[in-house]
Amino acid sequence: MLYLLPLISVIEVILVVVPVLLAVAYVTVAERKTMASMQRRLGPNIVGYYGLLQAFADALKLLLKEYVSPTQANLALFFLGPIITLIFSLLGYLVIPYGPGLSLNDLNLGILYMLAVSSLSTYGILLAG
Question: Could you list the pLDDT tens digit for every one of the 129 residues in the chain?
């Protein structure tokens, strides 16, 4: 019974983060298709029905790419930078109300929280550079 509360919290976070990541992936595919139509070319249409699986193909390609790191870089900071940026950008979704009683955390100063978290994500970009 003691482990039930943290398990529910983890499930709530997963239920918010997975649709957000899927929405971002499909907005990226939509942007690529729009840019392709502006340039009078086909765009991503090979993978899946009308290119709907293109986001998953891009993610798989990204995961299977060759390991490359600069020789003069601090490896821990070089690989920690994108992780920090991703974490802080996903923390911004913590205070967004998705419906009545459907927010992960109800803060009185949600706008201030979002501004603070979004400004912290620039540290990941600085670390990676």
Answer: 667 777 877 787 788 778 888 888 888 888 888 888 888 887 777 787 877 788 888 888 888 887 777 888 788 888 888 888 888 888 887 777 766 766 666 677 778 888 888 888 888 888 877
**Domain-wise residue ranges, the chain:** 1-65, 68-129
Cβ density class 91-109: b for 16+ within 10 Å, e for less? bbbbbeeeeeeebbeeeee
Q: Give the distance, in angstroms, between the CA of residue 72 and the centroid of all CA atoms in the same chain.
A: 28
Asked if residue 18 lies in contact with residue 100, where contact means CB atoms within 8 angstroms, the answer is: no
